[in-house]
């Protein structure tokens, strides 16, 4: 268990450190055009999130989200025809959508996946998969409101009687 905790801490520290550095670079007007270490870190974190059922999934989602919030992730956009083993922005978006739609996962992980999808749009306003993210958000909102609405009516009726 201690190994998982240390891995989780390392991933979180890595994500927050790069996020902080990117934010400072933006403030100083430095453009992130070619930063091989950052590209490598993003590739590895996203690859681990996409292709491994990891016990540190929440830390991976949070770290990627923190970096995405500060600017575009150095990933190819990807298309529906992209291979299953390609590390692309589309594959990341699809994985995050699967995570937040998976009711078996803890709500903390699901909420973080939702935030990370939003951060992808904040850090890269011209993201090509914005429509897919918004449609997933709307479907989730519709599903949640349909599930919760009868409970509110039922609970409201009980408190009146």
UniProtKB/TrEMBL annotation:
InterPro entries: ARM-type_fold
Keywords: Proteasome
GO cellular component labels: proteasome complex
Protein origin, superkingdom: Eukaryota
Protein name: Proteasome-associated protein ECM29
Species: Portunus trituberculatus (Swimming crab)
